[in-house]
Give the backbone structure.
Amino acid sequence: MTPRPAPPEAYAAALAALPGIGPARLLELVRRGPLAKEWAAVCAGGSGCEGGDGSDDPGDEPAAAFAVPRPAGNRSGAAQARAARRVDVAGRWRELRGAGIGVTYLGAADYPPRLRDDPSPPAVLFWRGDLGVLERDAVAVVGTRRATGYGRGVAHRIAHDLSGEGLCVVSGLALGIDGAAHEGALAARPGWTAGVAASGVDVPYPRRHAGLWDRVIDRGVVVSETGPGHPAQPWRFPARNRIIAGLVRAVVVVESHARGGSLHTVDAAAERGIDVLVVPGPVTSPASEGTNQLLRDGRAPVRHARDVLDELGRFPAWSGGSPPPAASGGAHRLDETTRAVLDAVDWTPTATAVVAERTGLGMGPLGVVLVRLESWGVLRGRDGWWERAGDAPRRARGEDERMV
Amino acid sequence: MLATIPSASLLGVDGHPVTVEVQVANGLPCFAIVGLPDLSCREARDRVRAAIVSSDLPWQSRRVTVNLAPSGVRKGGAGLDLPIAVALLVASEVLRPAEVAGMAFLGELGLDGSLRRVPGVVPMVDALDEPAVVVPPACAREAAVVGRHLVRHARDLRELVGALRGQRAWAPLPAPPAGPPPAPVPDLADVRGQRLGRWALEVAAAGGHHLLLVGPPGAGKTMLARRLPGLLPPLGRREAVETTRIHSAAGLPLPPAGLVSEPPFRAPHHGASAASLVGGGSAGLRPGEISAAHHGVLFLDELAEFPAGVLDTLRQPLEEGVVRVSRARASVCFPARFLLVAAMNPCPCGEGSLPGRCRCEEVARRRYAARVSGPLLDRFDLRVLVEPPEVSELLPSAGVPALEGSEPSATVAARVASARASARRRGVVANADLPASCLDEWCPLSAEARAVLEARLRQGRLSARGLHRVRRVARTVADLAGREGSLSEEDVCAALLLRADLFPNGPVGP
């Protein structure tokens, strides 16, 4: 069957969905291009696929069989050609466009510029939203899914302020830090943000973030190397992290456990010579173990968005970013009891039981103070624990030399 | 000739009077029991015959018909052995009717003629109107709990016949066996630290508020829960009799004096089936663990390990204080007004009470939290995160008294008793039972307290039902402090501290 005329993106999508073509082989084909020609060669069975065992059934729906990358020679060229000949390239392309899914490939005009010189660029990227946001200066804000309130708060604030400065905040759409970073960016104006997914761009993962996906697509873009309709598989996450590193000028790691996925992103950034900036955390917090180790290894610490901009060599007319939540707290004078309660609450979540133990107060007075401090925004209470949410109110306003 | 002897049978926790009629007539030798006996009751035939023969009493080789009236109600258990034997002896003119007049009989017979204990003596005796009742010696104190009857007992059939004929005196009521003293209830003074946990326990005991303790393994959840019975006031006479009836019907061991006077503490393992928890079963409708905990404490350790279906059977009894068990052949109502105390880990790895510490996948955490349904979780007025005590509390430094600051149970129990007295003045047993319509009357809010609650409501962190619960708990807090009148800011804030949203389903984000 002779393929009907279709744009090269259509062939890129078709090649990416073909069984037996892994990322490396796809990259080879895309680099060799033009894609229509390569597709024709695959259909003819002469695309240079060395003979394999030929035992794999390509299946009725080629996309469904695409699972793990295999060495290119593992599948017989003939079987692949049979599968390819069954694919309606133009029809599939129309379906993708109808679903609002765009396709770009290495060499295309809209391919993200920073990825063109990447050592291992994704050959084909699927996207939803506005791919243009990736042409801006971008910063990745990443970290653990098992984040503390501190980590989520910092990620939110840094992403918010960076986004407010017109940068694109890139992250992985995951729970925890990633989610907080996207939320922070979306809360700012213009609020450009890009999510790099490990699953297909039409398969929100984790499902709880389906709403977040829609909002990111609304204001920015969700991209993925994985074909539409495919779930996230474990090996895809490190591959996704390399794309995050490839898309940005700097990676900010907010919280990471001793062994965490965000350390993949750090490694990928190091390979590419991209700055890695690290948010310090309490040395007692397991969620900051990985990040504190990075600091110990000599990475640059960041406290807020201004530090990131400094690293990027941008010196904006910094207006101060988001106001610290405790801004109103300065007006309150602290008595002995309140001070004692505040001192008993850590910057990491502290159980009510522990606060009670440390202060030795009766439950009534303790409850009153905690509820009051929470209403001032100095503490955040949730699920039976409390944490410091902002700068402590000063005893007198004259002492106030807050920086941010 | 015909003889009738009053007795009783057990259904659920209620006794039903049964009249045992025996007719000895000419005809082919035969021994038949009619009147819907179940299997164990039908086996009475062989036991009664063997007991009579081995007691050297005459056995009639004639046609013997036993009828258990009312004959439409199914009777179970071996408790009718003794009345059948006595009726048979009367019908065969070994005993004269006048000798057994005004007496009811209950008990199982051994093949040697001895009288053995049967479960459910308290409710069965309670159902009898005869002035005297004869029971096995092991049940004598139990039967005396009812207090309306002259309780007689005999070791075996021969002794019984002798006593009935007036040839020997009735044995006196046995003194309570001087067995080992009851194991002491663990005392709160043994608990180090845990100010919040101890205080939650006190509020739970005072207000009858159900309590959920969440924390990592080894934090002391079970240790705390086991000290709750020591804080509860002893049962009143009416409550004690109610609880004794249930324990008797369930065949649970009763205290030597017969009456269950301390609040029961039941801690079923999480392998418990729904029937064992709420009652039922095919062999007679037996009260379950929640009824055994009536007027006491039901402690469910490792709550999340209980099958979800089993846990949800608790919802209706928690609301109504009774559980109705319906089976094809009978439907019974078990009282089940208990204080529910549950303990669980925050997540499968157990360390996740505070964010950032847990080693579990997010999915595993959610699956774990979902094992306890929202409606059940909502029944817990008090939800507390328990943290392991800090080292300084476990090993106090030299010179500091080891248990300083740890109040003994007796001190706390005194406060609990006075708080319960305040609740009784409002017409309820405990504040948890205050109807929503009376909250404005009994739990008025001060201006500051109102402001705190209003802020919570506006933030969407408190539901309408949650508001009621906070007010009830705050009332208990005020009662414990001896404060009358409207609820202060302290009372309400303290109540809020005890009501952590432990498994929120809100979005992840700052």
Chain B has 22 helices and 18 strands.
